[in-house]
Amino acid sequence: MISDGTTSDGADHQADGIKTIQAAFIQFDRRAEKLSQDLLAKTFVDAEPLFIQLSSKNHQVLYGRRGTGKTHALKFLGDSISANGDAAIYIDLRTIGSNGSIYSDAERSLPERATRLLTDVLEALEMELTRIALYSIDDNGDAEQITLRLDDFGKSLRTVEVRGNVEEESNNAQSSEASSNASVALQKDPQLAIGATKKNSANQSFRVKRAGEQVVSIDFGTLQTALTGLIEVLGSPRIWLLIDEWSEIPSDLQPYLADLLRRTVLPQQRVIVKIGAIEHRSKFAERLPEGGIVGIEIGADVTADTNLDDFVVYDVNQQRATEFFKNLIFKHYSVSERADPAIDTPDKLVSAVFTQITAFQEFVRAIEGVPRDALNLAAMMAKISFGRPISVDDVRKAAREWYQQDKMSITKSNPALAGVLSYVIDEVIGQRKTRAFLFPSNANDTRIDQLFDARLLHLLKKSISSNVEPGRRYDVYKIDYGCYVDLINTSRAPGGLFQGEGDMFINEVPPDDYRSIRRAILRPDDMPGG
Question: What is the pTM of this model?
Answer without folding.
Answer: 0.81
